[in-house]
Amino acid sequence: AYKRFSELLPKEERENACSARAPKSQILTLPELRANPFQHRICRVFSTSDSGDDSISFEDFLDMLSVFSDSATSDIKSHYAFRIFDFDDDGTLDRKDLEKLVNCLTGQDEESRLSNAEMEQLIQNILEESDIDKDGTINLSEFQHVVSRSPDFARYGGFQQ
User: Fold this and answer.
1) What gap in Å lies between CA 28 and CA 32, rounded to an integer?
2) pTM exceeds 0.90
3) pLDDT grade, residue 154 (50/70/90)?
4) Which of 72-76, 120-124, 155-159 comes out lowest in average pLDDT?
5) Residue 97 to residues 3, 12, 82, 86: CA-CA distances in angstroms?
6) Where does the EF-hand domain lie (predicted)?
7) Burial class (CB in 10 A: 0-12, 13-18, 19+), 97
8) How far apart are the C-alpha atoms of 121 and 50, rounded to whole Å?
9) Is 144 in contact with 75 (CB distance < 8 Å)?
10) For 74-157, CATH number?
11) How many whole angstroms separate alpha carbon 78 and alpha carbon 92?
């Protein structure tokens, strides 16, 4: 992990990789993230940068690798998946978050984009299935409840290395 992280740094910073931060542009070159539709959210969620540039420290990198590893529990994977899908970072998945989530999964171009009616129906179905307290949003425990009924989540939920 240290070797992989240091290779993401500019040559002059590789000596001090433990205290350096890899820029988001370099993190996005990792094969595991290159084709991931949530690559920007993943950087945002794992970055501890105060400057908002989504750069990643070695410690952040280790956290990210551990969540993506096969040995991470479903609870840990679902916690981070929830944070990644919570685009506005308000602690719930609301209609706007769900719309962004669907757009990330289906693509943004004209051919793959859902119509407004299809999007509304899909979001309604997701909320009916997941929103246990019927408040119009999905909280972490509701999300984890749904994920717990899907044994393939940890394996195929985009969270494997």
Assistant:
1) 9
2) no
3) low
4) 155-159
5) 36, 40, 10, 6
6) 73-108, 118-153
7) buried
8) 39
9) yes
10) 1.10.238.10
11) 13
Range in 3-17, 54-68, 77-91, 100-114 the model is least confident about: 100-114
Chain center to CA of 6: 23
Domain coordinates in residue numbering, the chain: 1-68, 74-157
| Residue 138 bridge partners (DSSP) | 93
How does the average pLDDT of the chain come out, rounded?
92
Name the burial class of residue 159, with classes exposed (0-12), middle (13-18) and buried (19+) by CB atoms within 10 angstroms of its CB: buried
Homologous superfamily in CATH for domain 1-68: EF-hand (1.10.238.10)
Binning pLDDT at 50, 70 and 90, where does residue 139 land?
A: very high
Tell me if 1-68 shares its fold with 74-157. Answer: yes
